[in-house]
Amino acid sequence: MMCLTSHYVGAYEMYSCSVLRRCVPSWNGNQDYKTNTIEAFCRVKYLISMSASPTSGPPTNYPVIIQGGMGAGVSNWRLAQSVSSAGQLGLVSGTALDPILARRLQDGDPDGAIRRSLDAFPYPAMAERIWQKYYIAGGKAERTPYLTLPLLEKDSPRELNELCIVANFVEVYLAREGHSNPVGINYLEKIQTAHLSCIYGAMLAGVEYVVMGAGIPLKIPGVLDRYVHHEAAEYAIHIHGSQDGDDVTMHFDPREYMECDPGPLTRPKFLPIVSSNTLATTMLKKANGRVDGLVIETRTAGGHNAPPRGKPLFSAIGEPVYGERDSIDIAKLRELGVPFWLAGGYGSPEMLREALAQGAAGVQVGTAFEFANESGLRPDYKQRLIAKAMAGEARVFTDPLASPTGFPFKVAQLEGTCSDADVVADRPRICDLGFLREPYRTADGGIGYRCASEPVTVYVSKGGKLEDTVGRKCICNGLLANIGYQQVRNGKREEYGIITAGDDLVTIARFLQPGHTEYSAADVIAHLLTGCDESPISDACDDVCFA
Ligand SMILES: Cc1cc2nc3c(=O)[nH]c(=O)nc-3n(C[C@H](O)[C@H](O)[C@H](O)COP(=O)(O)O)c2cc1C
Asked: Residue 416 is part of a domain; what is its CATH number?
């Protein structure tokens, strides 16, 4: 029997272990670990027994496994739907959903999923405008480029806001189909210009968790609170060089977009992703509303990583070197009194147990799910990297320069993608998606936008520093290419992927069944929960297992 555990066992509430301790068999090893592990098992057992709907009010239940948000489009609705159906928490990525939706429609919406979700969208005239503008019956011709969209700005045009609302609705709506478990969405604080319209669209679809990384999203809880009753929200964005008195505030009023009153919306739980004790404390003390828990991400995680603290040091192959100051004090985290999930190298049963033993509500896992059948990563990229992992040849390079954000970015090494110097050298610099552009104050006090990966002369003409352009890659186009929506340039060349993955890439073969070369999200979950049926929690699992 394979235990997939209940949905949502893992709250941080105090749990009683006294009865359960009696049924724990003798344990080898270090006494502290033994005690912690027993407590963790006790807690899992206790929380499995709670297994109520996580939105039904206190006691609050939480997932043990969060499938991390993976942008762009890697954690798509199919992956999140599979994970949530299996009783854990699936997160769709909320990054760049506007071009993703537009491109899916230009590809002809082959399985009809988008049409289905648009039919459920509460504002039909808006849905129809999107459909009419982007849908191409049968899909566009292969060598025809996708339409170029307006880029997000502090004051984005209505047309773009509508696309963001609808795209976020669609992704969450589809991820929620076919089951009644919660689904969440992941955003990057760094892409502030997307927040207001995107979050509103996700909430219209009933998203139950908003998980946000890449920054310090202190003002997001207030936005979530406002949208419950469709009230106008605002958000101050960071504008490089801004001065006192400059208008840096973005506004969004749902009532300017509503065609009817769909009634109050559910306030999602909010989990910021942080990488230090200081940021964890800051989020809890200074946020402008409720923070429901924290995801603590370490530097082995896929995607962008926090840079090392202090003076930058690099290894012989040019990766950032982290030190003692970058480690996280879990005991201090526990003292904060909110549930937390550990992320970055936690994609194994051993690491899940360790996290629980340390008092975490569970783990957030990305890389293991990235290579599951349901993820949005192109099947050929997936297969080639799984083959490399099986052969012991998979490599990830933590590139300190690739991302225009300036944050280290993990890049899986794969020939024919942008990990390959020749592929990058062959690509003219073009910035036409612009998600990672930095808003800056122009000489006349207005707002300009620049990206260190755009053409060098353009970037420098906008006041950017020449040295900041060195080694930069176009992450936006690379990420869309990763999921099969690569732009075609002049009908000739196309964009190539830049695949990010965590250090756990080298171990993904562990999820393969004997004789198989691919695996599903359910395989990952089953593997992570290995040992559940041999442990003190096995009898509790019986209620929620399937054979
Ligand atoms: C392909 C990929 C894309 C990612 N994109 C994002 C993202 O858009 N936002 C985010 O907060 N984290 C992102 N992450 C981090 C994951 O959400 C998760 O925290 C991390 O993968 C956990 O570590 P692991 O990769 O060792 O399992 C990404 C990770 C991967 C592998």
From this structure: 3.20.20.70
